[in-house]
Amino acid sequence: MKSEKPRNWEETVCYFERTKPEEYLLSLSDGTPPLPSKELLAIERARKEYRLPDSVITVLLDFLLKTNDFHFNTHLFYEVALLWSRKNIDNVRSAMSEARDEFKARRQWDFGEKKRHYSQLEEEIQDFKTYLCFKENASRDEKQEFEQFKKYMRSSVNEKLDYRRQDL
Predict the structure, then answer these.
(1) How far is CA 104 from each of CA 47, 67, 98, 111, 134, rounded to the nearest angstrom?
(2) Are 53 and 19 in contact (CB under 8 A)?
(3) Which of 21, 23, 28, 147 has the most CB atoms within 10 Å of its CB?
(4) pLDDT at position 167, please?
(5) For the packed helices 9-18 and 92-134, what is the interaxial angle rounded to 10 degrees?
(6) Residue 67: pLDDT above 90?
(7) Contact by Cβ (8 Å): 99, 59
(8) What domain of life does the native source organism fall in (predicted)?
(9) Phi-psi region for residue 4, left (φ > 0), alpha (ψ -120 to 50) or beta?
(10) C-alpha span between 48 and 166 (Å, rounded)
């Protein structure tokens, strides 16, 4: 059931135009049914309520699954489906263009968010360094505590970013 992957823009357009959303999902699971019911319900809702063509729904699934590490986020699916419905996205080319623009915007947001969190982290580390400088002779334990604090803060920032990415 697995078909060859498209190699260029035109092949990708043709692939999405001829592939139904259910077939696309089956191709991801090597043709092993059954498909998850929440995904099937989302596809039906996109068809009926948002009046999106199958080819556009397939592009939407491809975009969301690839940008979310192949995790299906129902809420995000409905948000984007509604947005595309309001924008009258009714063909593969415009859906792919919209997905590309959304991906670029998301990457820029992630970068800005990460930069902001790391600047906060650097301020907190500088405060801690200042604290240690006031002490004439920082003990070995205090230096180890500082190193642990730095590791904790960096992991905390990365966890916040991962959590926020899931909400997108």
Answers:
(1) 26, 11, 10, 11, 45
(2) no
(3) 21
(4) 46
(5) 110
(6) no
(7) yes
(8) Bacteria
(9) beta
(10) 27
Residue 127: the pLDDT is 65
Residue 2: band (very low, low, confident or very high) from pLDDT cuts 50, 70, 90:
very low
Of 93, 84, 100, which Cα lies nearest the Cα of 49? 84
For residue 119, what are its two tokens?
A: 């600047």
Is residue 95 within 8 Å of residue 56, measured between CB atoms? yes
Give 91's DSSP letter: S
Alpha helices in the chain (DSSP H): 9-18, 21-28, 37-48, 54-67, 74-86, 92-134, 140-167
Q: Residue 101 CB: number of other CB atoms within 10 A?
A: 10
User: Domain residue spans in the chain?
Assistant: 9-92, 105-167
